[in-house]
Amino acid sequence: QVHPVESGGDLVQPGGSLRLSCSASRSLFSAEAMAWYRQAPGKQRGLVATVTGRGRTHYIDSVKGRFTISRDNDKNTVFLQMNSLEPEDTAVYYCNQFPYQSTSLWGQGTQVTVSS
């Protein structure tokens, strides 16, 4: 089993933008939905956004209107476009299936730091 590979994180000023990418195995990508999760320092990992195989999306309230999740089914890749970034968005971002299954491996994530 291969873990997802996330990329695109960086240090950005408040109000800036980033686009995260996640490459996953075909078996993982065939799940009901894919999602982005994040873990801020000292906090548990939590859900950020989900996208179904048909493109239906869901966001947590704090990122609605700022983040956009999308997927490329041909390339088994999930994206997270993040605009108007805030310091509270600072975290390590991960992708995985949704709902998360304990048999799924986590990748190393990608660090997003929002700071002036």
Structural class: mainly beta
Give the SSE order as H and E letters.
Answer: EEEHEEEEEEE
Biggest β-sheet: strands ordered side by side in the sheet = 2-10-9-4-5-6
End-to-end gap? 39 Å
How many alpha or pi helices?
1
Low-confidence stretches: none
Question: Which oligomeric form is depicted?
Answer: single chain
Q: How would a textbook summarize the main sheet?
A: 6 strands, mixed
Q: Specify Rg, calculated over alpha carbons.
A: 13 Å
The pLDDT mean sits at 95
Total E-strand runs: 10
Shape: globular
- Helical content stands at under 10%
Strand content: over 45%
Explain what the structure shows:
By secondary structure, the protein is mainly beta. The chain is built from 1 helix and 10 strands. Strands 2-10-9-4-5-6 form a 6-stranded mixed β-sheet, with no helix packed on it. β5 and β6 form a beta hairpin. The longest helix has 4 residues, at 26-29. It is globular, with a radius of gyration of 13 Å.
Question: Keywords, please?
Answer:
1 helix, about 120 residues, about 5% helix, mainly beta, four-stranded antiparallel sheet, about 45% strand
